[in-house]
Amino acid sequence: MSTPYRGRFAPSPTGPLHFGSLVSALASYLDAKQKNGRWIIRIEDVDGARCTPFFAQQIITTLNSYQLYSDEPILYQSNFSAAYEAKLYELKKQLKVFPCNCTRQSLTKHNGHHPFICQSDTSRPHSWRLKSCQQSYEYQDPIQGRLLFSNDLEITSPVLKRKDGYFSYQLAVVVDDHQQNITHLVRGADLIETTAQQLYLYELFGWVTPSICHIPLIVNLSGDKVSKQNHAQAIKNGNLHTLIRALHYLKINVTNATSINEALILATQQWNPSKLISIDKIKLEEQDQDLI
Ligand SMILES: [Zn+2]
């Protein structure tokens, strides 16, 4: 018997849910539901400096208003620091990480290279970085096709634990997905660049890599990602029009749906990732300007 499908949507609560993240949430939800899988919400609040419980609750409320409910209790990354510490310790023993007290300025000065001295004084605040690996990674993305990551370009010593003591997304996401037995990741194409680092971590931990598929990124009229950084606003809760328009960017047409419930049922039938093949960006249409 094959492993049961387990998918997830894992937002960072640094702001309210915006249109771009609704599209991502829907893609992961529809993929899971169409394959009779479980869909799990996980709150990626590992960055305690930027995430707030207020936004976490607001995101969950908004998802639920679109009838996107987690099939299992919602986990919060901030509760799992001990697990991340344990994995970091393992990497330290394998000599796959190094302490670094470089500042952004000193890295720029050395063209991104770490002068040996950065690793010698661990009495000063330091981060822990993954050592570069020389190998290339090739990955077959069900939507984006063959992705080739040739190192060292892609794996540039990412930080796993920051100077301020917080763990990075890179480490946390791999540990969490493994602990929750996630089998399928459906996420935005902006995360393609982090894939090689994650594949490398899976390899170091000896874990099976989940299927990873990247859906097109919604970009605004100036070509920038619809994101919190680009001031995307909160979407309305439980708004059928917003849902129909979000599904439109996944090549799903449910304009005749009269309720959110009906729209989701029709969308689950229509979801066909092969319609998105090789598309990494979709420009937001003029009529949807007021949704972001
Ligand atoms: Zn350094």
From TrEMBL:
InterPro entries: Glu-Q_tRNA(Asp)_Synthase, Glu/Gln-tRNA-synth, Glu/Gln-tRNA-synth_Ib_cat-dom, GluQ/Sye, Rossmann-like_a/b/a_fold. Pfam families: tRNA-synt_1c (PF00749). One of its GO terms (molecular function) is zinc ion binding. Keywords: Aminoacyl-tRNA synthetase, ATP-binding, Ligase, Metal-binding, Nucleotide-binding, Protein biosynthesis, Zinc. One of its GO terms (biological process) is tRNA modification. Residues 6-237 form the Glutamyl/glutaminyl-tRNA synthetase class Ib catalytic domain. The keyword Translocase does not apply. It comes from the Bacteria. Belongs to the class-I aminoacyl-tRNA synthetase family. This is tRNA glutamyl-Q(34) synthetase GluQRS. It comes from Marinomonas transparens. The lineage of its organism: Bacteria, Pseudomonadati, Pseudomonadota, Gammaproteobacteria, Oceanospirillales.
